[in-house]
Amino acid sequence: MTSVIGKSVKRTDTLGKVTGGAVYAGDVVLPGLLHGKTKRATVAHARIKSIDTSKALALPGVKAILTHVDVPRVLHYGSPHPRSASVTQDQYILDTKVRYYGEGVAAVAATSEEIAELACELIEVTYEPLPAVFTVEDALKPDAPAIHEVGPGGNLVLPPFVVTRGDVEKGFAEADLIVEGEYGMGRPTPAYMEPNVCVCQWDPLGKLTVWTSTQSPFMVRGTLAEVLDLPLNKVRVLVDHMGGGFGAKQDLFQHEFLCALLAQRTRRPVRMEFTRKETFLGGRTRHPGTVWIRQGFKRDGTITAREAKVVFNSGAYGSHGPGVTAVGTAALTSLYRCENVRLEGRCVYTNTPIAGAFRGYGVVQTYYALDILMDEAAEKLGLDPAELKLKNAVREGDVAPSNHPLTGHGLEDCIRRGMEETGWASRSEKRPSPKAARLRRGWGMGCEMHGSSAYPGIKEQGNAVVRMNEDGSVTLMTGTTGLGTGAHTALAQITAEELGVKFEDVAVVHGDTDVVPWDIGAFASHTTFMAGRACQMAAAEVKAKVLARAADKLEVSAADLEMKDSVISVKGVPGLSMTVRDAIAAEKGIPAPQLLGEGSYHPTKSYSFAAHFVEVEVDTETGQVTVLQVVPVHEIGKIIHPIAAAGQIEGGIQQGIGHTLSEDFVVDHRDGRPLNASFVDYKMPLAMDMPPIRTIILETAPSDGGPFGAKGVGEDPIIAIGPAIANAIYDAIGVRFRHYPIPPEQILSALAEREGAQAA
Amino acid sequence: MTSVIGKSVKRTDTLGKVTGGAVYAGDVVLPGLLHGKTKRATVAHARIKSIDTSKALALPGVKAILTHVDVPRVLHYGSPHPRSASVTQDQYILDTKVRYYGEGVAAVAATSEEIAELACELIEVTYEPLPAVFTVEDALKPDAPAIHEVGPGGNLVLPPFVVTRGDVEKGFAEADLIVEGEYGMGRPTPAYMEPNVCVCQWDPLGKLTVWTSTQSPFMVRGTLAEVLDLPLNKVRVLVDHMGGGFGAKQDLFQHEFLCALLAQRTRRPVRMEFTRKETFLGGRTRHPGTVWIRQGFKRDGTITAREAKVVFNSGAYGSHGPGVTAVGTAALTSLYRCENVRLEGRCVYTNTPIAGAFRGYGVVQTYYALDILMDEAAEKLGLDPAELKLKNAVREGDVAPSNHPLTGHGLEDCIRRGMEETGWASRSEKRPSPKAARLRRGWGMGCEMHGSSAYPGIKEQGNAVVRMNEDGSVTLMTGTTGLGTGAHTALAQITAEELGVKFEDVAVVHGDTDVVPWDIGAFASHTTFMAGRACQMAAAEVKAKVLARAADKLEVSAADLEMKDSVISVKGVPGLSMTVRDAIAAEKGIPAPQLLGEGSYHPTKSYSFAAHFVEVEVDTETGQVTVLQVVPVHEIGKIIHPIAAAGQIEGGIQQGIGHTLSEDFVVDHRDGRPLNASFVDYKMPLAMDMPPIRTIILETAPSDGGPFGAKGVGEDPIIAIGPAIANAIYDAIGVRFRHYPIPPEQILSALAEREGAQAA
Asked: Which intervals hold domain Aldehyde oxidase/xanthine dehydrogenase a/b hammerhead (chains A, B) (predicted)?
């Protein structure tokens, strides 16, 4: 029986947020603060012939301008330090070449944002244009221009990523039915609420302090230290509150280096904040691309073989391309059981905005393809699609994409529960008739699985330090970042639960790389799972120290003691107890030692599962798709904070609806210029667009690694919603869409095309 | 052979100080900051009949006013949490009674300091005057007004503190000579460079953040938490740089409570900074008082008995009166050996400014008396005063004032070395003649001893956490405060030395009670001694973890490894070595665990010693005394940073010269009004007034507790200089002064009196 976890305690971050008291990086004000701006390229591919800064420098209020000649020339990239195989190092702070429209070519520090912007306009850049490519098809042509000097060549970000299992030829030979299709996806952006923002200040001893909106403060510390040639204890990165990242803010952005360098040059603090437009131009998107899949089936639905070719468009730089390609491609070994698999993933440079890490990390794209193909196959096999998926669902003993054995039957549990909840078997009977009415309804479902933690056993490590103060109150020190997910609340719950104190007794110190333990960053659904387990370990160490002191004072064995709500009792002896405060108080003049505990957890990989069931209504006159209801069923092991977990699920569904129906950051294929870099033109679903969501969370397959059996739920909810909607649209109007987003004009033109075909 | 300690490495705090980059509490600027001011009483003893704030509240810009009806009525005081026997709890934040001229009776928060000051003037307080007492003599009279309701009564702060050893009557009976005298002292103030200043802010969750100039951030946290009824993890106290405290800033001051309460009331950050005048009015002074001593001597100089009565004037509140009285009185058991001792210390409330902790902590006053009496006795015995002191100097095996056995022969070493250095035996021969010239010269000497650490074995505890970052750089986390002494440099040296890395590799995190380990505060000469030892312990733990990893990789035993300058070598095997960075790097995919070490040290008490030798010149026409040279000889165990240690010694001597010759904060005995609350009227020696100081530091008696044998040197240098000067003046002009300060007018009147007597 737990007393703190599993309850939706009041989150520690929300009151600050609703009262405006929460401090974000952009709220930092320092005496003498300067404002920095980035001069961005207006060409997609070019060599820089010259940059004339004289007019800009003459502008009163301009304090410094940096171009490529002023900054260290170190190839860098991003992501957790020490460097990861998931990312490429192909970027300079400022280069002599431009590879996409909107890339930074210079930076200004001035006494106001307005002056800095004006100075950017006054900087004159002369370009020598280069031929540009905007699609993977063009980029892969033999005569395509080379965008980078580094890498395997042919505009590949990495050599093709290949996974094979079993004998694919034999599998297809045994098939009664072979289904194949090519699926494509647009370029959704994370569109986080808080724009990228950074404030940098150097102290007289050459120590750099950075306030920045990042998911990975220690990555920022490590990479800045490396590029600027500083020891790690000379770079301090501070993140208190943060307004979303969704993976994109795992990268280090140009402005973070430039802000540090401008502050160094001017000897004054400098602040650089993206405009909303810059979050599109200089931000990170999901990888657009195509997924071709071919699957063989037995008549009973058993999958005999699977082949796939994944091609992702990385944009101008590699960023997380390698990781996204590998994870997205390898995901196709699983979800639905198949012994014979051959997969190939490629990631290709183009002269378009940079694709990076984004919630779902490649799996959104590949499971979208797989789950529509399964729907198509079910129809051809004359089987119910949910039954087909249930039959093939991965389960205990199967091998996960990460090659770990899977435990439990989470996916089957989710599918079965969703079918029950929606009355799936009788869904056709409930459909409003006549079928030919203007408004047509349909049901669809999709599945997903996603691992908690990214690189189990390699370099991931959850760390925590727990300290009990002399009044029995507790301070948890964690390097994790709160993106807005309530992570620190969950970690405090875990600490309180393990320690035997009240939730309110635990304060969380985070967001200061000088003082909190190292953390890899907030991504890969691993904060609660991995850092949570480290908190549990650290709390257990403190508890042991407290109980040892209490045992001395009570003259019993520590093993006979239990602790709850800060009261220590002797098991089975009512009345024999003492408060934690008394236990740790000085006795015979000897004070308690430092009550410090530390935890380090190297994770195993645990998978969470979900099945999303969706009902849509299609207006056949306007092409408008309305999602009427969503029933997401998630299996995530032990729930720490039910409302926060449900919040993750609902947020993921909202983002997923946007990506499936309306969101696409579009680049003009003539000149590489983005066409909708604003919230006016880039369409996201708002609160009033949201359907009712009946979230169901199962705890049927607890992890053996996470705290109290918990698993992650950050990535999962954005994956299954897309194919569920696409399958529901097919169910409603009988038209199959193999590309997202699916905007009204495509619905209308597909309906018109079908009517034309029927008429012919 | 040490490589980092014992060297005067570049201090980490100085560059920030000289460039203006160092951040003091007063430099903190926050959005919406209000300014607070204290309305101070203009009577010395009165009951408050009423306070009319209506005019003040009507002033535009005034945001809140607090009087005694608005603040929690909790008796508090100060000093390290949990509460210490060294201090009294006799003060309310704001009371219904005024006990000294300048006491705070209300506080204002307004949009500017000027408005807050004006509002204070507009507050109308009606007093019911009470009879006031300004001297201990008046306060101890049977019909004296009672200043407090708490305490033992009779205006005593604590019951008389009595120490007896041996048989004093027998001792005096055995004496060949009995010498007695009463010695008195004025009221010097610490006059720290940085005025008291405090900034308070509450976050939306009710957490209080306090930037304040304090020696004891954890005391501030503990006492504020207690008085405001908050858990300790809801109060965060921040101190980065600090501009001196000298003991006074061990107390919590009225404005620190008021600042927190004004910020709570206004929901805005509030800043309160003392004017220089307020540092006098509302600050803390040394305890003025009288010390009566009677000593018996054998003809050969052996002391047979000692009796003393110490009476300290505590001012309006007790503050550190109990501690200062006990330590100052008990000090008379020692310095010069004596088996038969009877001492009584009393501490008395008066309606004068508050006396508190001040460098030397009561010992300045009592050793001043003892060391002049020894000089008087030497003359009567026909012995050289230095020889008399050397004969009686405490030594190995004697019992210290704290009842610990003393180790080593530090005091004898100091006296002997000083006699050598000054050519003491032949000093009279070097004296300029004729003796009757206008300018007369003389030599004097004084001795002292002072313990490192205040409450050994009771509640003192040095703590440290040391973390090695993944690049091998090191972060030391310490709760100690840097008053300007270079403490954090010394702690980094100790950490680097023990760990085997370079000094530059160690960064120090301090000054944030949320994250650093608990510390009792920077006082009692114990930072280097006690926290330093904890740093050494924490560093040793990290080193063991690093060596274990290196041993694995090098396939040798960790016991065979040594580490220096971040290189780990196999002892006796040249060439077999690896860097720390390589040792801690991930191997076989497994990263190093958190490299965290912690140290907690409960100190023994170690004593440092000194003898000061001084030459003065007295101008018999003006009464001016010029200190021509000082030769201080200090024995402090292992020196960590020679220049910083010498800086402590020189600073103490400068303060001591001031107290002995010119500094006295004077209260008008008619109405209790201070007469010289400014640097114009309160005369301190400036840099140009300083004599040459030839500092000699001995390391002949290392402590067995401190790091590498180090002992403290913070309190010591202010003690022996006073009697050395007084004895030198006697040597020069033959007039004995038993009271400090000794201003020119006293010299002149004493000379005139003697001439009158000689003429008669």
From this structure: 19-131
